[in-house]
Amino acid sequence: MTGPHSHAQAPARPLEGRKLLLCVGGGIAAYKSLELVRRLRDAGARVQVAMTEGAQQFVTPLSFQALSGQPVRTTLWDGAAEQAMGHIELARWADRVVIAPATADLLARLANGHADDLVTTLCLATTAPVTVCPAMNHRMWLHPATQANLALLRGRGVQVIGPEDGPLAEGESGPGRLSEPDAIVAALAADPVPAAAPDRLNGVRVLISAGPTYEDLDPVRYVGNRSSGKMGYALAAAAARRGAQVVLVSGPVQIATPPGVRRIDVRSAAQMREAVLAELPADIYIGAAAVADYTPQQVSPQKLKKTPGSHTLVLELVRTADILAEVAAQEDALKLVVGFAAETHDVEKYARGKLVDKHLDLIIANQVGIAGGGFESDQNAATAYWADGQRDFPGTAKTQLAEQLLDLITERLDA
C-alpha cells in the first residue's frame, strides 16, 4: 500500500539514459546476452545490438530485436543502412560499447585493430569506451596469446568484466565462463561514462531542405540539376543524433531517410516552397536544397516533338519563388536561417551578396565543378560566412562536415 506518506521507492535504475551498443560474439554464451539485454534495459539503458556472423549461429537477430526494441545490425553489407553510413552513425550513437560474449578470436582481432566485419569496424570507429566480457574454454583463456591480447586491450583503457570460474559448455570447469548479466550490469554501473552536457540542439525544431528540384517540360522531360542531396541528408542525420526534431523536405534523391527524421518528398520548386512554408514555424531553417531558379512557363501535356526543318527549341522560363528569402522574411522570426551557395567562381563575393540580399544569419558556400567536392561527391569543403566573420572547413567527408557545420550553427544560435 502506498500513499502520500509512503516511503516505498522505485527500483534503482543505475544505467538511466545510457546508450549502450551490445556487440554479440560467436560463442555458446551468446544465449546469455539475451538476458543481458533485458537487464540493461531494466537498469534504464537504451540498447542497440550488433552481431557477428558466428553469433547468428547460436541466437537469431529477431530474438535480440524483440528484447531491445531496435533493429539489429549484422553486416557491413546492408545496402539500405550503409547508404547513410549506418555503421558510423551507430558508432557515434553509443556512449559505451559492450562486447558479450567476447570470444578469443574476437579479442585477438580487436587487439590487432582488425575491421573485417561489422563488430570490429564499429569498435575501431567509435570513440566511446569499450567493455569486453570474455567467454571461452579455460585453456583458450589461459593461453599466453589470449592473455597478451587482454593486456594490450587493458593498456588502451578497455574495461574487462570476467570471466568467471565454473562449469563450461564442454563439460569441463575452469576460468572462462561469461559473467552473469547482473554482474555485468553492476560493473558497468560502477564504471560510469562521464555525463555529457545536454546538446544545445536537443528538442530544437530544425527544418532542412535538400536535394534538387525537377521542373517538368512534358510528361518525359524536365529541367534539373546535379544535386545529390548528400549534404542536406548528412545535416539532417547529424541534427537528429543531437536530439533535434528534424523535418527534411527532400527533392528527388536516392538516399535512405536518416533515423529520427521526418521526411517530406517533393519534386518541383513550387512543391518545395509549399512544403517548407507549411512546416513553419521552426527554430532553425537550413536551406541546403538546390532549388531551380527558373521553371517552364508552360508544361506540355504531351511529349514535345521535333519540328521538321528546325534545329532549335526555344523554352520560355519564368523565375521561381525565392524560398530562402521568403523564409527569412517570416514574421514569426526563426532563431537562425542558414543558406547554401554553390558557386563556380568568385565564391566569397556571391556568398556574401546572398547573405545580405536574403537577410540570412549564416551562409555556407562551396565551389562546384571541381574534383573531390560539390555535387554528387561524398567529399566537400566549405566556407561559412556571417555578418562579421567567416570560418573555413577543409575538404572532408560530408558526414564529418555536417558535424562541423552543426557545431558552428550551435555557436551562432547563441551569438
From TrEMBL:
Residues 1-205 are annotated as: Phosphopantothenoylcysteine decarboxylase. Residues 201-411 form the DNA/pantothenate metabolism flavoprotein C-terminal domain. GO terms for biological process: coenzyme A biosynthetic process; pantothenate catabolic process. Pathway: Cofactor biosynthesis; coenzyme A biosynthesis; CoA from (R)-pantothenate: step 3/5; Cofactor biosynthesis; coenzyme A biosynthesis; CoA from (R)-pantothenate: step 2/5. In the N-terminal section; belongs to the HFCD (homo-oligomeric flavin containing Cys decarboxylase) superfamily. In the C-terminal section; belongs to the PPC synthetase family. Residues 19-187 form the Flavoprotein domain. PANTHER family: HOMO-OLIGOMERIC FLAVIN CONTAINING CYS DECARBOXYLASE FAMILY, PHOSPHOPANTOTHENOYLCYSTEINE DECARBOXYLASE. It catalyses: (R)-4'-phosphopantothenate + L-cysteine + CTP = N-[(R)-4-phosphopantothenoyl]-L-cysteine + CMP + diphosphate + H(+); N-[(R)-4-phosphopantothenoyl]-L-cysteine + H(+) = (R)-4'-phosphopantetheine + CO2. The keyword Flavoprotein applies. Its cofactor is Mg(2+); FMN. Residues 206-415 are annotated as: Phosphopantothenate--cysteine ligase. Catalyzes two steps in the biosynthesis of coenzyme A. In the first step cysteine is conjugated to 4'-phosphopantothenate to form 4-phosphopantothenoylcysteine, in the latter compound is decarboxylated to form 4'-phosphopantotheine. Catalyzes two sequential steps in the biosynthesis of coenzyme A. In the first step cysteine is conjugated to 4'-phosphopantothenate to form 4-phosphopantothenoylcysteine. In the second step the latter compound is decarboxylated to form 4'-phosphopantotheine. This is Coenzyme A biosynthesis bifunctional protein CoaBC. GO terms for molecular function: FMN binding; metal ion binding; phosphopantothenate--cysteine ligase activity; phosphopantothenoylcysteine decarboxylase activity. One of its GO terms (cellular component) is phosphopantothenoylcysteine decarboxylase complex. Binds 1 FMN per subunit. Its EC number is 4.1.1.36, 6.3.2.5.
